[in-house]
Specification:
- With 456 residues, the protein is α+β, with helices and mostly antiparallel strands.
- Strands 2, 3, 18, 19, 20 and 21 form a six-stranded antiparallel beta sheet that branches.
- The longest helix has 31 residues.
- The protein is elongated.
- The C terminus is likely disordered.
Length: 456
């Protein structure tokens, strides 16, 4: 019985079937990646149970062939090396998949970061019973891409105690921010304003998270704030607005004065001259209690504007859409909850400080030809990371992946790819063993040819 099973597992028919299966899955993966993206191909094909089963059968077939050839002879060296090499490469990749790190890190110029964003996604819930101190009460890895929540089969978080449910998920969605009125007394105000003169026109919302929160927008020559009006200026041209019932109090501060240059009240639809560059402030909309929500539209395929979106329901009443790496806040009678959905963050154990970022462009264009980052790592010194020269430290390899532009088109942050490959040595060893097998193959063929020449 054992011999029959071994003969089947080592048979050429099984090997051909495995090869055809791998080729078919690879072709499907290529089609999925071309129609959607690499993430979809990885999750739906390359990391699927079907690919894992085929690769497992492939490994069994390789082992069975070697066992079936026992006892081995000298001429089997190349054959054994080829099979052992493939098994080493597969084992190394398995170890990397289970224990490796492959993520990205964004570091702003003049800032530092020590957290890597990983592909895995988690749902996390924080609770506060005093309004200030939050503690983590729930965290779980989820894969909504493969197993999407629906209204009939939601993903629930402490359904009986908290009542948070994820009821819908879009793999590809286009999102836009909208500000709506709310009757929640714990939320702050919202003001939609317009700053304009003969040459510029800017319209935006300012929304407070709570009545005491100060939110602002820096427009360069002018800073607009919503919140408590200070007693003295901060050395910049700015406007402060504070809501009081249906009235909006304002104060204009100049950069060269401490006391406000102008104070008063303004209502919805009214405007005031700022005195700077002919700019005029107009109040377009005022909401005493406001909250920001995402408005999402589903798409069938990814574009540069699409992202993941998930719908969250709280205690069967309130519903919000969240984007990946987003948070939403819910209020109960005696507690407040922060719910987040996003990529897992991993602490690499040391901060990376970005001193400088340099970019060279193709002559006559705005396209980046090359770019590099100068970073400082504590107890390791200053180093340069470029596109073809990664930095290795503490078991990690740090690659220069990309960069992020600011509103003026200048780089404001560098994006690194952080990699840890514990199975790399096995993959290198497998490649070396396969190379030796090829050398032995040609050696024994040449030896055999010489023997036949002498003994025809």
């Amino acid at each position: 019985m054992f011999k029959k099973v071994l003969k089947f597992l080592a048979s050429l028919k099984l090997a051909v079937l495995v090869i055809i299966s791998i080729a078919t899955l690879t072709a499907i993966g290529t089609f999925v990646e071309s129609k959607y993206d690499a993430v979809a191909a990885k999750k739906l094909v390359y990391d699927s149970i079907y690919m894992n089963i085929v690769m497992g059968v492939f490994a069994i077939n390789l082992i069975a062939v070697m066992v079936d050839r026992w006892p081995w002879k000298l001429r089997h060296i190349s054959f054994i090396c080829a099979h052992v090499g493939i098994l080493c490469i597969m084992t190394g990749q398995l170890i990397t998949n289970q224990f490796g790190i492959d993520g990205s890190m964004r570091v702003g110029i003049g800032d530092e970061n020590r957290f890597v964003s990983l592909p895995q996604t988690d749902v996390t819930v924080y609770a506060s019973y005093d309004g200030t101190n939050y503690s983590k009460i729930f965290e779980k890895e989820v894969d909504f891409f493969r197993t999407s929540p629906t209204p009939d089969k939601p993903f629930s978080v402490y359904k009986d105690q908290i009542g948070v449910k994820f009821t819908n998920y879009y793999r590809y969605a286009v999102a836009s921010r909208e500000t709506v009125a709310s009757d929640n007394p714990k939320l702050g105000a919202g003001i939609r304003f317009q700053i304009s003169n003969g040459q510029a026109n800017f319209i935006e919302w300012l929304v407070q998270r709570n009545p005491t929160h100060v939110v602002n927008i820096d427009l360069g020559p002018l800073k607009v704030n919503l919140g408590t009006i200070p007693l003295a200026g901060t050395g910049v041209n700015e406007i402060y607005m504070k809501v009081d019932g249906n009235k909006i109090h304002y104060a204009l501060f100049s950069k060269d004065a401490i006391d406000p240059r102008k104070e008063g009240t303004i209502e919805e639809g009214q405007s005031i001259p700022t005195g700077w560059m002919g700019l005029e402030l107009r109040i377009l909309r005022y909401l005493p209690r406001a909250e920001e929500k995402w408005k999402v539209e589903q798409r069938s395929q990814p574009t540069p504007l699409t992202t993941e979106a998930v719908e969250v329901e709280f205690q069967g009443k309130t519903k919000h859409w969240m984007l990946v790496n987003d948070t939403v806040k819910f209020f109960a009678d005696d507690a407040a909850f922060f719910v987040s959905y996003g990529n897992r963050r991993f602490d690499i154990g040391f901060p990376i400080f970005l001193n400088q970022f340099h970019m060279e462009k193709y002559q006559g264009t705005s396209r980046a030809m090359s770019y590099r980052s100068v970073v400082t790592i504590k107890d390791f010194g200053e180093h340069e990371i470029s596109m073809n020269e990664p930095l290795k430290h503490n078991g990690l390899t740090i690659y220069q992946a990309s960069f992020q532009d600011g509103p003026m088109g200048k780089p404001v942050a560098s994006v690194f790819s952080i990699n840890k490959d514990p199975g790399r040595w096995l993959k290198y060893l497998g490649s070396l063993i396969m190379t030796l097998g090829i050398i032995f193959l040609f050696y024994f063929r040449r030896l055999g040819t010489g023997t036949h020449a002498k003994n025809p």
